[in-house]
Write a structure and sequence with these properties.
The chain is mainly beta and about 120 residues long. It has no helices and 11 strands. The chain has strands spanning about 5, 10-15, 20-25, 35-40, 45-50, 60, 70-75, 80-85, 90-100, 110, 115-120. Strands 2, 4, 5, 6, 9, 10 and 11 form a 7-stranded mixed beta sheet that branches. A 4-stranded antiparallel beta sheet has the order 1-3-8-7, with no helix packed on it. A hairpin with a 4-residue loop joins strand 7 and strand 8 (about 80-85).
Length: about 120
């Protein structure tokens, strides 16, 4: 069983930065891939980025490449999403998730946090 708690969301102006954190409990967390997804009002939850269990592989949606960086510290059971050059279209609730497979598909992620709101003003 893995429990996830996100933090670091907030209100920021366009062009600004935020770093989201996802703290995990459970001794097996270091063996899970971790993903970040987001859900904007009126839209379906969408993949943002993922990182493999050991951090050697990452993937991103095209719209955040070069602006967002996913990383993890297994010693601290924490995954991060550094978000730079934020745009109003990045506004959403951001969710952390864990999966036994390295994937961009939400169906492959059995564990989810409660989400943290990110609002980017223009």
């Amino acid at each position: 069983q893995v429990q996830l708690v996100e933090s670091g969301g907030g209100l920021v102006q366009a062009g600004g930065s935020l770093r989201l954190s996802c703290a995990a409990s459970g001794r097996t967390f270091s063996s899970y891939a971790t993903g970040w997804f987001r859900q904007a009002p009126g839209r379906e939850r969408a993949f943002v980025a993922a990182i493999s269990w050991n951090g050697t592989s990452t993937m991103y949606i095209g719209s955040v490449k070069g602006r967002f960086t996913i990383s993890r510290d297994n010693a601290k059971n924490t995954v991060y999403l550094q978000m730079n050059s934020l745009k109003p279209e990045d506004t959403a609730v951001y969710y952390c998730s864990a999966s036994p497979v390295f994937s961009a598909r939400s169906q492959n992620y059995p564990y989810w946090g409660q989400g943290t709101q990110v609002t980017v003003s223009s």
